[in-house]
Amino acid sequence: FFFSDIHSASMLLFLVVLVLVASVQSNEDDKGYNALHFGTSTSDYVTFSFDMSPFRNSFSTCMWIKHLHSSSIPVVVNYYTRSGGLDLTITANGYYTHVVNDSGLNSLQSKFTTPAGQWFSVCLTWSMSSTTSNLYLDGELVATDQTTSGRSLYMGGDIWFGRPSTSYTSSTNYVFGGELYQYNMFAEVLSAATIKKIADGGLCFDLDELSETRVLRWEDILKKSRSGSVKDSDTGCKQTWETQASLADAIGRLNETVTELNETETELRMVKKQLETLTGQFETVTAQLNGTEDKLETETGRFNASQAELDTVRGHLETATAERNSTEEQLQTVRGQFNRSEDLLETCSSQLNKTEDKLDTTSARLNSTQEQLETIKGELRSTQSQLDGARKFKNITRWDVLYTSPYYNKIFTEDLFGQLTTSWEILRNFVGANITEGIVNHFQLYHDERFCDAFDELSAAMLKQFYGVELTYGIIDHLRQHLEESACDNTTQS
């Protein structure tokens, strides 16, 4: 019992694998480029159910067949119903062809003379209203039959490719074993001209123009599940259709170009007429132009003269512009200076006010000083008078210094005594030098107590007093003392 269950499970798994293998087959895209190559056993087939109602009262079916296998009744397609049996059967050798279970086209082996391995076209049409079926080989009508009046195509059957229905027979005599391509069923009776066109179009004829009535399509059949050895076979139509599509596209573009060229030609004719009109107008304008050339030359001369004058005016204008720009820059500079002058004027006004105040104070002090100066002048006059009187007697001695302002009518102090001794000591540095007016002025200016605050240091004015004097080492040493420390300070310290 255990081993029996294992065997049943193995068989079930094997059947599932077969179904999966049959369903997973390589299909080309929806265009249906490939053919189907059937094996030579009764297990090599394709079958499926299909709604045949569009073909109930009439139909056409066309296909391409390549006969490869030798069998007595190589069934290519079979539509089998339990009610009517062989409602549609087509073979590869013309034997046993049936329509609505009628065998009038049964024995046509003499018509199917295409050698094995070569493609040939087969079309079958039928109409219940005319009770007529026609068989075409490579676009030519080869047989006609009358079917039973009122008999329509039965519904509810299955379509088989590669062999007849298993409900009918399982004999190997019915195996197709060849290749099938572009099997299509149309819900109308195709005309003989259309069928001829399909056949003459060859294996790769494009059926898109018949798409409205093409109900059972080859590209859909390629997607159906397969049993046994049923494989895709390359027909080369993919490249052909791609080339045809490219050619059709090129033809379309060429037609568009031709249309455009025709339109361009029409436009060219119009342009030609316009050109002729313009040519006449051009000739008229040329004549007018020739007549105005002299005027143009005259006006050109006047223009050139005016241009020269204009250039001269432009030169003057540029010079004037440059001068104006320079003047503007100078004006800007003057404005800046004027603004600064205004500021300076305000500052000066303020300082002037302050100076006026100081001037008032100084004026008061000057008045006081003038009064003192008048007093001193009186004293100087008295001293000068006395000095002049002394000189008249020509007995001036070193003691006459006591008649000067620092000593005369003053109490003789130690400080005055120190000034006298220091002054005479300074003269020691001038031993050997000639006493000039400059040397006397030097002692009067730089060794007088009244001028110590302003002339106590060595200066250019001091050196001028020694012009024309032979400089001795003593005089140079005396000047060095003025450089190092003021002579008045030395006098004071002494």
Shape: rod-shaped
| Strand proportion | 15-25%
Task: Quote the distance from N terminus to C terminus.
Answer: 162 Å
What do the pLDDT scores average to? Answer: 84
Secondary structure tally: strands: 13
Low-confidence stretches: 16-29, 450-455
Radius of gyration, rounded? 74 Å
Main pleated-sheet profile? 8 strands, antiparallel
Counting DSSP H or I runs of 4 or more residues, the number of helices is 10
Proportion in helices: 40-55%
Order of helices and strands: HEEEEEEEEEEEHEHEHHHHHHH
Q: Based on helices, strands and strand pairing, what is the structural class? A: alpha+beta
Description:
By secondary structure, this protein is an alpha+beta fold. Helix content is 48%, strand content 15%. It has ten helices and 13 strands. Strands 1, 3, 7, 8, 9, 11, 12 and 13 form an eight-stranded antiparallel sheet that branches. A five-stranded antiparallel sheet has the order 2-10-4-5-6, with no helix packed on it. A hairpin with a 4-residue loop joins strand 7 and strand 8. The longest helix has 100 residues. About 4% of the residues have low confidence.
